[in-house]
């Protein structure tokens, strides 16, 4: 923080009616044991109280909040040869963000410990965790209700609300974010002045104003960054498109890495990917002009789904769109939250609901739960092999395959196609039949028996069942 920010911070803290669970005023107490206990207690209490930071302030009287200054100089205090800031980090478990500011306030020396709140679990100092009860520091083990709240808070960390960049001026915010796109995509007029623009950015949770500075949230940066490389924790979240020669990764033709926020770059990304894909003069019996081998709508939905449902906590990896001669793979970080077999019918559980909600409002993605349904519908219209949904330990991948005849398909290809067709019929209020499956594969009626044998194999695999002995079929979960 700059001097001006620190002045405003002290003004705000002094204006509090009394010390609280997340603020402690001291004059000159430099006992390292006490300082460690305060830091643990304040970090844990800031978590419970939903505070961005806790503060240990030296130079303020706790009874009157009068600024009296302090003789405490933490950078000159040595504990076992270490500065107190470094020593504290070795005694606190897990480690937390701790910043010490030394400055002048009303011409008096001040010291502020700015302490990040606990996250994931309580903060221990020398194997004991503390908490604030009013203005008193107590052992956390004696207050079970407080400890349980800390664990509950750990489950409520929201990626979109965290800060990608802190303590910016209004001009810096407008330089780092492509704010005109916010209004364009939400179909709103651009305000005529800076205050109106900043007010809307705050309303949409893209920025937060604190004191006289602004913080850009992860939501604001990931969607509207002029360059994601300016945001250290998000720089590796730019989508990558890789085009290979052949059907493996041995030879890369080219690789493109984005840099703009998702909302800005989405249409360009989808168009770029579609432009790299092959086209045919005719597909199946329906299309008689040059069209893409892969349906454009399916590509759009898969990219949108990957952006929305990725796990941002998986470090060092990003959305990958890989184009091979015989397939296209769209991969996002994070294991899916539901069984891949239920992608078609199940409303998706999004890790990033704020991101998904805003992208839906901007018409970048479909309404909840309809995206994968549209992908399967498009795949059947183009008479392509069924897409493969793959769940890894820390990734989710969707594979679209280039055209194959039923004879060319492997057994897993056929099983997926029958199951997905059956699901699609069921969620449309219909039933799969031999006839509907023949139409799916463009099989002549005289080859009825081929489809009958295929249906029997899929029933034996346990993913579809016959409905009421009617020669109509439903997915296993529809019973």
Salient structural properties:
alpha+beta, Heat Shock Protein 90, 479 residues, four-stranded mixed beta sheet, 15 helices, 21% strand, six-stranded mixed beta sheet, Methyltransferase, Cobalt-precorrin-4 Transmethylase, Domain 2
How would you describe what is shown here?
The protein has 479 residues and is of the alpha+beta class. It folds into four domains: 3-157, Methyltransferase, Cobalt-precorrin-4 Transmethylase, Domain 2; 161-230, no CATH class; 238-403, Heat Shock Protein 90 (2-Layer Sandwich), CATH 3.30.565; 404-479, Winged helix-like DNA-binding domain superfamily/Winged helix DNA-binding domain (Arc Repressor Mutant, subunit A, Orthogonal Bundle). The protein has 15 helices and 23 strands. It has a six-stranded mixed β-sheet with strand order 15-14-18-19-21-20, with helices on one face. It has a four-stranded mixed β-sheet with strand order 1-2-7-6. Strands 5-8-9-10 form a four-stranded antiparallel β-sheet. Helix 2 crosses helix 4 (144-154) and helix 13 (411-427) crosses helix 15. The longest helix is centred in the first third of the chain and has 17 residues, at 32-48. The radius of gyration is 29 Å and the shape is elongated. The model has no long low-confidence stretch (mean pLDDT 91).
């Amino acid at each position: 923080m700059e001097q001006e920010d620190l002045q405003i911070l002290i003004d705000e803290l002094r204006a509090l009616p009394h010390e609280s669970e997340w603020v402690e005023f001291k004059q000159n107490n430099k006992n390292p044991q006490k300082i460690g206990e305060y830091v643990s207690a304040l970090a844990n209490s800031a978590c419970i109280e939903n505070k961005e930071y806790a503060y240990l302030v030296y130079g303020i009287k706790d009874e009157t909040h009068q600024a009296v200054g302090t003789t405490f100089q933490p950078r000159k205090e040595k504990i076992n040869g270490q500065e107190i800031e470094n020593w504290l980090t070795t005694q606190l478990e897990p480690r937390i963000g701790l910043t010490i500011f030394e400055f002048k306030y009303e011409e008096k020396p001040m010291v502020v410990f700015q302490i990040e709140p606990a996250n994931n679990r309580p903060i221990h100092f020398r194997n004991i965790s503390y908490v604030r009860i009013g203005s008193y520091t107590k052992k956390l083990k004696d207050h079970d209700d407080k400890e349980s709240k800390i664990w509950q808070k750990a489950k409520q960390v929201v990626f979109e609300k965290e800060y990608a960049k802190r303590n910016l001026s209004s001009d810096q915010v407008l330089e780092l974010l492509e704010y005109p796109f916010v209004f364009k995509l939400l179909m709103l007029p651009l305000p005529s002045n800076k205050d109106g623009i900043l007010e809307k950015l705050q309303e949409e949770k893209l920025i937060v104003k604190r004191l006289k500075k602004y913080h850009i949230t992860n939501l604001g940066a990931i969607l509207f960054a002029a360059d994601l490389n300016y945001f250290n924790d998000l720089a590796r979240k730019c989508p990558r498109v890789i085009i290979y020669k052949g059907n493996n990764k041995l030879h890369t033709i080219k690789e493109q890495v984005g840099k703009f926020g998702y909302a800005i770059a989405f249409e360009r990304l989808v168009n770029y990917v579609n432009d790299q894909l092959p086209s045919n003069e005719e597909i199946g019996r329906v299309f008689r002009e040059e069209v893409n081998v892969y349906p454009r709508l399916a590509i759009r939905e898969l990219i949108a789904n990957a952006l929305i449902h990725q796990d941002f906590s998986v470090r060092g990896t990003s959305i990958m769109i890989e184009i091979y001669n015989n397939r296209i793979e769209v991969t996002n970080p994070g294991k899916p939250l539901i069984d891949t077999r239920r992608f078609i019918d199940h409303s998706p559980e999004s890790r990033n609901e704020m991101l998904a909600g805003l992208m839906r409002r901007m018409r970048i993605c479909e309404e909840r739960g309809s995206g994968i349904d549209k992908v399967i519908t498009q795949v059947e219209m183009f008479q392509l092999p069924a897409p493969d949904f793959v769940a890894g330990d820390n990734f989710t991948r969707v594979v679209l395959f280039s055209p194959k005849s039923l004879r060319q398909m492997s057994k897993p290809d056929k099983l997926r196609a029958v199951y997905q067709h059956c699901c699609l019929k069921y969620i449309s209020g219909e039933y799969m039949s031999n006839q509907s499956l023949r139409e799916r594969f463009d099989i002549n009626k005289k080859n009825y028996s081929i489809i009958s044998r295929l249906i029997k194999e899929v029933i034996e695999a346990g993913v579809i069942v016959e409905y009421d002995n009617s020669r109509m079929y439903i997915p296993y979960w529809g019973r």
